Amino acid sequence: MRFSANTGFLWKELPFLERIARAASAGFHALEFHDEAQGEESGALSDALGQAGLQVLGLNTRMGEPVGCAAIPGAGDQARRDFDAALALAERVDAAAIHVTAGKTAEPGARDAYLAHLDWAGQQTTHTLLIEPICRAAMPGYFLHIVGHVQIASAPERAEPDVGDLDYASLLPALIAEGYDGAFGCEYRARGPVEDGLGWLRAWS
User: Fold this and answer.
1) Is 3.20.20.150 the CATH number for 4-130?
2) Tell me, what DSSP letter sits at residue 174?
3) 37 or 1: which leads in pLDDT
């Protein structure tokens, strides 16, 4: 297994370049950046990465107070400048992916603005583009937060959901309490005739 250190969360008490060295000495196999690297001098960043010997898996577009702006109507020009800067950095450090941060907005045109920007960004590069839904509890106001569909099965067997390591009897009500109002897709491999394993359905319905 390989593990990547996210410098936006780990060793935040240290200057950014020192976090890179600390990740290498701690035994991590790769790095992920927020937008910290965009403020670093190119040569110093290259030196730090060369000494660490770690691959950069991905980095964010500019975040700032609104945590990006790609979904904010009217901010398209800034979003494109932010993406261009992130792309230039990704090419310089050979990062595999770019997270296109959406920003905090509840404006009616946010979805269309974000989709239009992602379409444009996808035409600029062959890098993998990442999007990240963030729950309201962790980041109030962030545009991309909706969970569209939840599928369930046991772990690790992928059998009926009332067996295994996941406590769906507690997890599913918690999802509903957090605002999920969709159906739960049952994508599991029945251990026998389907009807014989449906005690959970009668108990949880």
Assistant:
1) yes
2) H
3) 37
